[in-house]
Amino acid sequence: VDQNFPRILQYTMKKLDNKVLYGQSDILNTITINGTDVQVADVTSIMDDGKVTYTIPVKDSDHNSDAVLTAEFVVDKNTLAFNIIKVQNNLADNDYPVQSIDIPCNGILNL
Question: Phi/psi of residue 63, each to 5°?
């Protein structure tokens, strides 16, 4: 995994002689909030056994976006899940709600 942005670099198949499947090789730094691409910086991550949790500040004053996303990759046996577990909107929800979140071009698995 990438420690600076939620993306999977590669998978190692332990039960298949350590064969490698590749994920997203390009460096990413864009989150789309409500249809607007926002370049993010200062992403932090915490790696724990089978889980990586990201804190992602997303701010674009020109498009009324100011939020902090908490997202995680979780591995359970042979299953990988990507979850956005918290959206902290720093603006008034009634006036500027976070209605959609996307990570464009994030290929979790490339074959």
Answer: -120, 20
In which residue are the tokens 């902090």 written?
A: 68
Q: What pLDDT digit, counting tens, does each position of 14-34 carry? A: 888 989 988 888 889 999 999
At CA 19, angle to CA 48 and CA 45, rounded to 5? 20
Number of other residues whose CB lies within 10 A of the CB of residue 79: 7
pLDDT at 78 over 90: no
Amino acid at residue number 26: D
**Can you give the pTM of this predicted structure?**
0.89
Residue 39 CB partners (closer than 8 Å, separation 6+): 29, 30
Residue 73 in contact with residue 10, Cβ under 8 Å?
Answer: no
